[in-house]
Amino acid sequence: MDAEKTLALLQNIYAASIAETANTYDRLMVLDTIVDRRKQRHAQTAPFLNKQLGIETVEEVFGKLSEIFGCADWSVGKADDSYVATATSCKLCALSKKMGGANPCSGWCLDPMFAMITAATKIDAGSIAVESTLMTGDCCKVLINTRAEQNGTADTALPSRPRANCPTPAK
After folding, report:
1. Reported pTM
2. In this structure, what are the phi and psi dihedrals at residue 13, rounded to the nearest 5 degrees?
3. Domains along the chain with CATH numbers
4. What whole-number distance in Å separates Cα of residue 35 and Cα of residue 25?
5. Alpha carbon distance 115, 52 (integer Å)
6. Is the pLDDT reported for residue 137 higher than 90?
7. How far apart, in whole angstroms, are the C-alpha atoms of residue 110 and residue 93?
8. Rounded CA gap, 71 and 94, in Å?
């Protein structure tokens, strides 16, 4: 098996393992507790991960993690004072839905990325918001405001109605 096929196989096994883990935690009714604990650890591990991966920008967080894990097809667009990151497909969401429907987005995808963004940039976690995810909508859409640093934590609560309009931003 060549290196490219081996990497794709390992990425699929990894995504399936996370999906199974999230669904198991959900069935045991501890998913929210586990996600909260993981979120606390992400802030501690993010600087190390950024250094290991050479991540220094918002775009690199989404791009390098997409490349390594081969899970979501993230695309990042930049405006004067914000970024919009969208993904229209995600292996983790698809597998998690097939295995029972537990939501792995915060604990295994979004929270780690947000911690990496705040560790690599001057963007405060309170400036990052999730508009929709592929678990509940037709895309994953993250809004990142760079206008001013704000104190607080990222609002990762999902909207009650996912947005239907999820165009892929221009790179």
Report:
1. 0.85
2. -65, -45
3. 3-145 (3.30.1380)
4. 10
5. 15
6. yes
7. 12
8. 10
